Amino acid sequence: MSRAFVKEDGNDLEPLPDLPLSPHPNYVTPRGLTALQTRLRDTQERLALLRARPDRLDKLPEAAAERDIRYLEARLRSAMVIDPAQQPLRAVAFGLSVVVADEAGVESRYEITGEDEADAAQGRIAPQSPLARALIGAEVGDSVIWRRPTGPATLEIVAIEHPA
Q1: CATH code of the domain covering residue 157
Q2: Single pTM value for the model
Q3: Is there a contact between 93 and 154 (Cβ–Cβ < 8 Å)?
Q4: What's the pLDDT tens digit per position in 64-78?
């Protein structure tokens, strides 16, 4: 094989494209801000370990860590911290926990958090989600329509609380 087509230096790996940033305001809870800061620190530590490897032929993990650091730094720069403890409990709002009952009377709890903190398995939803948009502004006793892909659902607001 001709050496003319073999790349030997491997030092010119282009940076990976940046991860897309949300066009929405970056509201975060204090817990969400701490989580972003922790993720950034952990990613910076991982990058330092990758750069300290004796065999650095594969630079892709380093490029991925650098990309993730750029994303996390951008999210931290744009973060607008809202403390749920300072939110009044009159209506559903960012950072608050809400208990709803569906048409069958089954209760569920949701907490409206920042996008980076959202986790459906823990009942944490982003403010831009269809469920959060239906809930925000509602008061205890109100019924709201949650427009789901499987069809609309009516939910009654049972309680509005500060998260535990």
Answers
A1: 3.10.50.30
A2: 0.83
A3: no
A4: 999 999 999 999 999
